[in-house]
Amino acid sequence: MGGGSPGPGGSPVSPSGRPAAGGAPPRVLVYGYYGFRNAGDEAILAGIVRAFRKVEPGTEFVVVSGKAAETRRVHGVEAVSRNRIRRIWQEMGRADLVLAGGGSLLQDVTGLRSIPFYLGLAVMAMLRGRPVVFHAQGVGPIRRWPGRLLTRLVASRVALITVRDPESGEFLYRLGVRHPRLFVAADAALALEPGDPARGRRLLAAAGVSLPPRDSGGPLIGVSVRPWPGRGEPGWHRLAEALDGLARRTGGTVVFLPLQPPADLQVARAVAEAMAEPAAVPHADGWTYRDALDAVAACDLLVGMRYHALVFAAMAGVPPVGVSYDPKIDAFLRQVGAVTAGSVQDLDPQALVEAGLAALKGRAVEGRRLRAVTARLAADAMQAARLALDFVRRRS
């Protein structure tokens, strides 16, 4: 692992035969978990586009997506369906760079198909003669040996690796990856502007949430839950008990913020129904990633399972309290100096209440600190884009 950026250089013709730096801007094919209405992954894509175009204005993108038409509409980029393998092969031939990421593509927690699918696309690009960059990746856990072996073999052969946290780099090292161009960066979504709290309050009100007065009411406590991907039973009743405690102790309003409806909505309704205190579950089916950013920014505290709910909160200076289901939650909270209240399976309701109260008590100072930390992480996300584009220039 290392830091720093290689310098640009080379001739004016790109690997695809098109003019590169000094001529037409580079063309980048991006693949990840896009087009599935997951606000976190859509924010990653938006952050990639923003960062690359800030470094190299006019960078062209074609995105491999679950819903190509929606990706074109939301992000203003070209897109191809992830089911059209022949078309993806053709688009790889037109690209100067193939970008794998960001996000948690290389893990087997949420299913066994992710690793062979995403590594298979990387191998396709290599066979096409295109440089592959693992970009802002969160790697692991990978529990099964075939996935670990495949990841080691392919990751050792890509052109460049940037990971979003030190733990991901250490995980690759433990797998046996000894890549000379592996850099620790940050999650790509951090390259976005923070959410707009005023717009977030308007969105929540329009979605049927009765908001407390901004200055005289209790705090607005945002909650992000997701389906439980692990074994055993999740402790939803303990989470409900903790949220009841927070609402009573603060006089606050609890509002659930679904980052991937309808799955998150189902869990949110189940937890809200288990609560004794009232809690709002807004009608958020049509929300974009920007709507989710703004809704999180409108809160005074964010209790979250979703990785990017915690990211959005920290960006906006909203103190996050994590409820962990995956090591990536703990890794991000360590990056920003925030707390995890425990795992969803063994959650101590009182510990979550105390963590929430402490965060609310010092939220003005904590908000300033979080904004400063995430500004530094945003610079790291920009650096990851520079590294990838510098690699294209060096090859051109």
From TrEMBL:
Keyword Transferase: yes
Keyword Transferase annotated: yes
Protein origin, superkingdom: Bacteria
Compositionally skewed regions (Gly residues) per UniProt: 1-10
Domain (Polysaccharide pyruvyl transferase) ranges: 38-327
Residue ranges with Low complexity bias: 11-21
The protein's name in its UniProt record: Polysaccharide pyruvyl transferase CsaB
Organism: Caldinitratiruptor microaerophilus
